[in-house]
């Protein structure tokens, strides 16, 4: 069974084009008959961001109760025993 598979592989390999392979550097363009291929990656244009980045940070608030100016770990409403 293995011998048959190896013979089939050799037959397929021989039937493929026997021309020598050409190695192309990453930045070169290759013209192969009707097809032009480039291995250099295309660079996408930089996007202009439409959102406005605020100059000031908004005041933080407790994630538990929403009290402004206090973190949840130090919030007297959410942690009455921590005082």
Q: Tags for this entry?
A:
1 helix, 83 residues, two-stranded antiparallel sheet
Q: What is the averaged pLDDT score?
A: 74
Structural class call reads alpha+beta
Low-confidence stretches: none
Oligomeric description of these chains: single chain
Number of helices: 1
SSE pattern: HEE
The best one-word shape is elongated
Portion in helices? 10-25%
Strand order of the largest sheet: 1-2
The fraction of residues assigned to DSSP E strands is 5-15%
Roughly how many Å apart are the termini?
80 Å
Radius of gyration: 33 Å
The description of the largest β-sheet is: 2 strands, antiparallel
Overall strand count: 2
Q: Which helices and strands, and how do they pair?
A:
Blueprint: H1 2-15, E1 29-32, E2 35-38
Antiparallel strand pairs: 1-2
Explain what this protein looks like in three dimensions.
- The chain is elongated.
- With 83 residues, it is of the alpha+beta class.
- It has one helix at 2-15, and strands at residues 29-32, 35-38.
- Strand 1 and strand 2 (35-38) form a beta hairpin.
- 17% of the residues lie in helices and 10% in strands.
- The chain has a two-stranded antiparallel ribbon with strand order 1-2.
